[in-house]
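Moderator note: this is an archived Q&A kept for reference. The question asked for a predicted structure of one protein chain; the sequence and the answer are reproduced below.
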Amino acid sequence: MSGFRALPSVDQFLLSDTGKALVDQHGRARVLAVARQRLDAAREAIRAGDDGAALAQALPRQVAETLALEARSRLCPVLNLTGTVLHTNLGRAILAQEAMQAAVNAMANPLALEFDLDGGGRGQRDDHLRGLLCELTGAEDATIVNNNAAAVLIALNTLGQGREAIVSRGELIEIGGAFRMPDIMARAGARLVEVGTTNRTHPRDYESAITPDTGVILKVHTSNYRIEGFTAEVQAPQLSAIARQAGVPLLNDLGSGSLVDLSAYGLRREPTVAEAVAEGADLVTFSGDKLLGGPQAGFIVGRRDLIAAINKNPLKRALRLDKIRISALEATLRLYLDPDRLTERLPTLRMLTRVKADIAAQAARLQPRVQALLEPLGYAASVADCESQIGSGALPVDTIPSAGLRLTGPGGDAPDRLSARLRALPMPVIGHIRDGALVLDLRCLGDDAQLIEALEALEAP
């Protein structure tokens, strides 16, 4: 019985200095529940022969640790050292400072979101972005929904519900999370008409498939894979002419989409939205959180009459954006009006255009410090060449020369064990395993101190 007497009651714990501090931090209900759980566990341990005094001494720390673990969000910041700049599983684009400040202002204040300050009547939330999108793409009009899949869905539903939608077999892509273009078309109510073959589609394939029941021709930019070898594809200008001759709208889904020519920054060219509009597409859809470098969104630009029809679709309200993302998108799009400073101000482009020599110098600076932190755990760090990639389906077979740290240790499972430990840090560090080592590609690491501070939380097993 003496062991049990060493334990405080729940009320005694709540009235202790530790209990009061925890109540202030986490609330009485949570502290009460956790204290009861830990006291019940302590009583079971005493029955099994453990020392009651030692358990009582450990109780405040155990309650505090349990509460801290519960309070820690699983949606926590991480260091993306995978080498994939736009990593879908890690949230894709990092926003520019201007976009973050705009989002904070939107969260903290009422906004003239759907209020016309000039006339005093109701406004349209898309108006805050429409002018910028038209200026940057050359389109007649624009509208916005919550992601690019939604943009394709509502465009197909508006143009092709109950009608035929023609698409090349080689463009029936599967996007992230096993979502497939045919499934999106089916949900949109369009009847899929496949033309051509997986590797070759010709103009005559489209021409022979058009009927009075054709509602739309869909072209999909295969941004997340490449077909090479014996191939043929109908380019957008020629397909636009075919569609125009038949009086059928052409919808060009660019997927990642880009507002600038990436080749100007040393990357392989991707079709820009302005080019797709100039090539004659009636509607163009693209993402906001990939190459554009903003928050998640789906843009639709093109003919004014078709945009008006999309805006009248009841799905538009279900797919619309909130004030926070609209504010962040407006700030992001404004950065494109000053292309000379875009790499300085847009994190996505800044990370994509970092030169290897700069990253290698960072790796050389960090190597001795990382080595000192990992050596007590039995691991070693060395500078290594890496190959980064854009991610999120953009330029899937292209890599960008980079550099990083190669972490090795004893045993065949050493990379997996170290990777698990780094993921469990207060600031998780995410790398990738290659050739028997855990590799930390430093392309996306800004300040050296970020990595050192994260690794300093490592403790010997």
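Archived answer notes: The longest helix spans residues 28-47.
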